[in-house]
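Sorry, I am new here, but would you mind making up a protein's amino acid sequence and the tokens describing how it folds?
***
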Amino acid sequence: MKWTKLTLSTMADAVDLVSNMLSELGIEGIEIIDNVPITENEKKAMFIDILPELNTEDKTALISFYLEENEDIQDMVVKIKSGLKELSEFMDIGSGLIEISETEDLDWINNWKAYFKPFRIDDTIVIKPTWEKLDNVKDTDLVIEIDPGTAFGTGSHETTKLCILGIKKYIKDEIRLLDVGCGSGILSIIGAKLGAKNVLGTDIDPNAVNAAIENAEVNHITAETLKIISGDIITDTAMQQEVGYGSYDMAVANILADIIIPLSAVIGQHIKPNGIFISSGIINTKKEQVKEAILKNGFKILEINEMGDWVSIVAQK
């Protein structure tokens, strides 16, 4: 199979907004090249010592992604340009030029693995790719092994970190946890490792379900503790019945703002009174919209946390 590679020229400061826009268009995997140096805290959280030299004067960035040969490339380009025009009202998005090239079915889908290294979420939680070795682990560390495959969720993105920290803060032993849009299963696995008695993960992508099940097995989480199912909890009433009503002490959703808004109208029926709802994946330009939806649907907001351009909201039913 041949793939079409699209490379978009933008500014480093606009990468989060642009990548969020691409996600809303259904583009699930992107490659980012920029000259933004990592901070000292980020370096300490990563299990690497040698970093590349960067031209910090260059504030541009390139975002690349791939489309299958049967997809309408020109239609996608039109949608991207429309999205860039909207984003340009908020900030400098750079030239917005899109280069199109064709590539053979090489192993590009796995090339990103060279850049996915073990890293720390905080003082106790370490995320490790299944194919990497890990040194200098403390006895008190909780090590989570992940191979996301084609599913979203390595744990390195701010949205996932925010969700993980929220789970760690509010989780209690023996609770029931619902993970909507579980992706690679990273949040479900961490919830189980932190003491949840039962965890149910859902995702509309069957590939994500397979990845989550495999990752659960790698982390020695049994099928009795963690179950993963495929379906749309927002619109599918049969799926909602399968998930169960009034059953969960905590629900988490690390998705996108435009999905969290309608989700907030139905998620409450699955959560016990006083249960916790942690949402993330919210770009800061849509924070107020998500807040309004969560409050409208019977929750009170306990806290709002931000990291970079991303927002996580912790609410209680």
Remarks:
- The CA atoms of residues 245 and 269 lie 6 Å apart.
- Confidence is low (pLDDT under 50) at residues 45-50.
